[in-house]
Amino acid sequence: MSEELDAAHKSGMEQLRNGEGDYLIHEYDGKLYRTIIKKNEGKTKLICTVVARLIDIKNMGTEDRPAHEYLFSVLGGSCHAPEMRYFKPKNLTSHRTFTTKLMGIVPFAEFLGNKQDFHDFFEKEVDFYWARKD
């Protein structure tokens, strides 16, 4: 395990011990990681080379024909300040289309996780967004 991955693993395991559950998507050193506990062993994987955070959801359509767009803040890689961009729903259909959009913002940015990681990441961001709105 590389030093960075080892440090992210320790951070993820500590967060899991302090919280509930056996699965966590977390940020460490400007990247997103997934830490999971299976059979009493923890495993950590780099799932995104940048940190993307959902900032806002806007309806760019009408009430009858909604056209939601998702404003993400992206930080990491060569970015020294967060880049804000709207993502259309088609950019959020899979981890591959998300990566394509990320690379347009930050060169070489990539979502390395699988479909389930992407689903969990997006669900977590939406839940966090609505929790802030309340």
Outline:
The protein is of the alpha+beta class. The protein has three helices and six strands. The N and C termini lie far apart (40 Å).
Radius of gyration: 16 Å
**Strand/helix succession:** HEEEEEEHH
The best one-word shape is: globular
Q: Let me know the largest β-sheet.
A: 3 strands, antiparallel
| Number of helices in the DSSP assignment | 3
Termini separation (Å)? Answer: 40 Å
Mean pLDDT: 89
Number of strands: 6
Decide which structural class fits the backbone: alpha+beta
Sequence of strands across the biggest β-sheet: 1-2-3
Strand content: 25-35%
Percent helix among the residues? 25-40%
In total, the number of domains comes to 2
- Uncertain runs are none
Oligomer: single chain
Describe this structure in words.
It is a single chain. With 134 residues, the protein is of the alpha+beta class. It has two domains: 46 residues, no CATH class; 83 residues, no CATH class. It is 34% helix and 33% strand. The protein is built from three helices and six strands; from the N terminus they run H-E-E-E-E-E-E-H-H. The protein has a three-stranded antiparallel beta sheet with strand order 1-2-3, sandwiched between helices. A hairpin with a 2-residue loop joins strand 1 and strand 2. The model has no long low-confidence stretch (mean pLDDT 89).
Write the layout of secondary structure elements.
Elements lengths: L2 H16 L4 E6 L2 E8 L2 E8 L2 E9 L8 E8 L7 E5 L7 H11 L9 H19 L1
Antiparallel strand pairs: 1-2, 2-3, 4-5, 5-6
